[in-house]
Amino acid sequence: MINLSGKTALVTGGGAGMGRAIVEAFGMYGVKVAVAEIDAARAETLRHTLEGEGIDALVEVTDVRDKTQVAKLAAKIEAKFGGLDILVNNVGDFMGIVGPFATSTEEQWDTLYQVNLKQIFVVTHAMLPLMRKSGNGGSIINVSSIEAFRGIPGGVIYGAFKAGITGFTQSLAVELGPEGIRVNTIAPETTDTEQVQVTKWTNPKYMDHTQRWIPLGRFGVPQDAAGCAVFLASDLSAWVTGTTIHMDGGALAAAGWYRTPEGQWTNMPVIADKGLIF
Ligand SMILES: NC(=O)c1ccc[n+]([C@@H]2O[C@H](COP(=O)([O-])OP(=O)(O)OC[C@H]3O[C@@H](n4cnc5c(N)ncnc54)[C@H](O)[C@@H]3O)[C@@H](O)[C@H]2O)c1
């Protein structure tokens, strides 16, 4: 049922982290992959790697917040691949903006809106005609965050736009269902990537403790996102639309429950200071 061979995909932000893992997994399954990546050096490295692996790819330096650049990319995808079957809206970033809502600025709201929600509208709007053209239905996969499903103090605006992705996913899934285009979301918990360098940021004295924060005993790795994306892109999820995979090791299910060093579960505070330093 994982028959993705010959399909075409666009992965935004495919030059690092989860996006890159998704690109490589798609390549392994014979998908022809287009990548929109803002960072020229990352794009170049990825281009080389995919060439070396014999993967049919189109890696373009593109800022997905820019409508004109996205339109150019759509034209290039159409010229090279003819259409599109899979769209992964992976780009998103908290932009290092952390602090109380009360002191946040309008400029920060706009910055976070552009990179976490508006660009998903821009890219999906531009790519939908290509998905319709391919005529085989299709799969749109949005990458949100676990923070869309719980409160994140210091990240109110980021959390609000990520929550917006849930609404976008549900309504678009209903609109596009009759055409066989499915729309779903992946919502990751803390995952070790270039953006969230969790190994580096974890206070060394709490390294052991981190294994007890999450029921499955570890933070995420980019390949966790790749597994979810392959599932959502393929016929394994043929009857799944309008919903979210919480890619979180059980963190949301546990909510505030953690294990003590003795292995007991507690919903009481278990460390005295900041677990993450960044
Ligand atoms: N890593 C985590 O812990 C975590 C947790 C929850 C949600 N997320 C979400 O997962 C997604 C991927 O995160 P990641 O940690 O892999 O990110 P990352 O920053 O490691 O990789 C993202 C890639 O996107 C590129 N990019 C950024 N802005 C772009 C733009 N405007 N146009 C084109 N490319 C752009 C970056 O250059 C980078 O290569 C994001 O939507 C993020 O919000 C991440």
What Rg do the Cα atoms give? 19 Å
What is the chain-wise order of helices and strands? EHEHEHEHEHEHHHEHEE
User: What form results from the Cα inertia axes?
Assistant: globular
Please outline the major beta sheet.
7 strands, parallel
Q: Identify the CATH class.
A: Alpha Beta
**Beta strand %:** 15-25%
What is the number of strand segments? 9
Report what the structure shows.
With 278 residues, the chain is an alpha/beta fold. The chain has a single domain, classed as NAD(P)-binding Rossmann-like Domain (Rossmann fold). Helix content is 41%, strand content 15%. It has 9 helices and 9 strands. The protein has a 7-stranded parallel β-sheet with strand order 3-2-1-4-5-6-7, sandwiched between helices. A two-stranded antiparallel ribbon has the order 8-9. α1 crosses α8, α3 packs parallel to α4 and α4 runs parallel beside α5. The longest helix has 29 residues. The radius of gyration is 19 Å and the shape is globular. The model has no long low-confidence stretch (mean pLDDT 96). Bound molecules: nicotinamide-adenine-dinucleotide (NAD). The site of nicotinamide-adenine-dinucleotide has 30 residues, from α1 and β2.
List keywords for this structure.
single chain, 278 residues, alpha/beta, Rossmann fold, two-stranded antiparallel sheet, 9 strands, globular
